Amino acid sequence: MMGKLARVTALAAAVLVHQMAAGADETAASRFTFDGFGTLGVVHSDEDQADFATSLFAPDGAGHTRAWSPEVDSRLGLQLTANLTPRLTGVLQLIAEQRYDDSYTPTVEWANLRYDITPDLSVRAGRMVQSSFMVSEYRKVGYATPWVRPPEEVYRLVPVTNFDGIDFSYRSRFDGLTNTLQGAYGRKDATLSGGGTVEVRDVVTLTDTLEWGAATLFASYGSVHLTVDEENLNALFDGFRQFGPEGVAIADRYDVSDKRYEVMAVGARYAPGDWFVMAELAHANSRTYIGDARGWYVSGGYRYGAVTPYVTLARAWVDSSTSDPGLSLGGLPSSLAGQAGGLNGALNGVLGSVPQQKSVTLGARWDFAQNMALKVQYERLDLENGSPGILLNRQPDFEPGGRVNLFSVSLDFVF
After folding, report:
1. How far is CA 357 from the centre of its chain?
2. Containing H/E element for 27?
3. At what angle do helices 334-351 and 231-241 cross, to 10 degrees?
4. Given this model, what pLDDT does residue 15 score?
5. What percent of the chain has pLDDT over 90?
6. Residue 268: domain span
7. Residues 6+ apart with CB under 8 A from 118
8. For the chain, how many structural domains are there in total?
9. pLDDT confidence of 29, banded at 50, 70, 90?
10. Which helix (H) or strand (E) holds 345?
11. Nearest to 52 by CA among 405, 409, 410
């Protein structure tokens, strides 16, 4: 039903655009604003047995597929805002970027209606941003962030960027402070590059943002019921269930079938003008093979005229075990023991694939023209504990652990 609501909202916005183009008067036309943003980027990775990408749903990226990839960061976004009445506003945002099927077919990122009950209290319905982190609202607008991309060690914990549902926002002011409390409820479906699906139900998100001059404090809590329907995972856990109660218990422990996934995050930023410093810490809790994942980053930069060099330190790790003894092999016939051993090995491969890494990022942003910025960024990824880190599309000869060097260049713009 919520998915239909987002489509209806998008259709309504499209009808409004058509009416305006068909010759609506100047007063009606002034109710509409049209904006856009985009990134033209290229990324190089020196790891030729796996790919670096910024989306879990991407089929490939920089590294194995191509040493220099323009697909990792490049995108184009268009947004129409319709001020329908003094209190009712509609937003439609379309984005073209690399999809799960390696196409650039535009998709509806946002499509919602907002009603301002009071100047400080509003409600929305439709498709909206998933606001789990400090820069979630504009994580795809490269021009709005100092980096080429938000630190993956934190932002990958919630890979979906929107949801279909309802939300509210309440803003209060006191003694120079502005506090904004937001709450949301909804759902989300996504398609994996290998043909599987991700279903997110009962999305509940609460965020609180406190602003005082140049300082910002942020906190969020999110809870969802998560289901991952993927052929290889399904075959693995079905295989365990064939070994009776012991196998069933292992499969039920690690599969992702209507399991609760919780994410908590805190962040802070101070940007008085010529310099900035910011940090976020996030914790994801899941009783599945995903485990209890953590991530943090600290970033800062200083502006010299039109150039802002910056540095970022980040880490991703898990507090849960990355291995399991699996099925007991004692007493099994040799044929079944071989099968059980294979299942145990595959399970530990899945558990060990959870990203664990440290990274150091050095970069610079050059605001060389109005509404345009050129960024150059170097990242060194140190993959920890034999982990593949955030790399995907791993090939048979890929060796977990080690070091990966990334070099990125991007041109960000807004209009």
Report:
1. 17
2. helix 26-29
3. 140
4. 42
5. 89
6. 2-414
7. none
8. 1
9. low
10. helix 334-351
11. 405
| DSSP structure class, residue 144 | G
Cα Dmax for the chain: 83
Q: Is 154 exposed, middle or buried (0-12, 13-18, 19+ CB in 10 A)?
A: buried
Q: Taking each helix axis as running N to C, give the angle between helix 231-241 and helix 244-254, from 0 to 180 degrees, rounded to the nearest 10.
A: 150
Distances (CA, A) of 109 to 188, 197, 291: 12, 18, 29
How far does Cα 315 stand from its chain's mean position? 16
Asked if residue 267 lies in contact with residue 281, where contact means CB atoms within 8 angstroms, the answer is: yes
Cβ atoms of 97 and 74 within 8 Å: the answer is yes
For position 27, what pLDDT does the model report? 56
Non-local CB neighbours of 278 within 8 Å, separated by 6+ positions? 134, 267, 268, 269, 270, 271, 298, 299, 300
311 is written with which tokens?
């540095």
Q: What CATH number does residue 55 fall under?
A: 2.40.160.10
Digit-coded pLDDT (tens) for 373-402: 999 999 999 999 889 999 999 999 999 999
Other CB atoms closer than 10 Å to residue 39's CB: what's the count? 23
Number of other CB atoms surrounding residue 30 within 10 Å = 10
Phi first, then psi, for residue 141 (nearest 5°) are -95, 90
- 13 closest CA partner among 115, 112, 118, 105: 112
CA angle 357, 361, 364 (to 5 degrees): 160
Q: In the predicted model, is pLDDT for residue 292 greater than 70?
A: yes
* The pair of three-digit structure tokens given for residue 246, joined into one six-digit string: 């012991």
Q: What is the pLDDT of residues 154-205, one digit of tens each?
A: 999 999 999 999 999 999 999 999 999 999 999 999 999 988 999 999 999 9
Contact 312, 147 (CB under 8 A): yes
Token output for 327: 């099925």
**Residue 54 CB partners (closer than 8 Å, separation 6+):** 61, 72, 73, 149, 152
What does each C-alpha distance from 281 to 12, 294, 296 come to in angstroms? 39, 8, 4
Model-wide pTM > 0.85: yes
CA 390/CA 369 separation, integer angstroms: 34
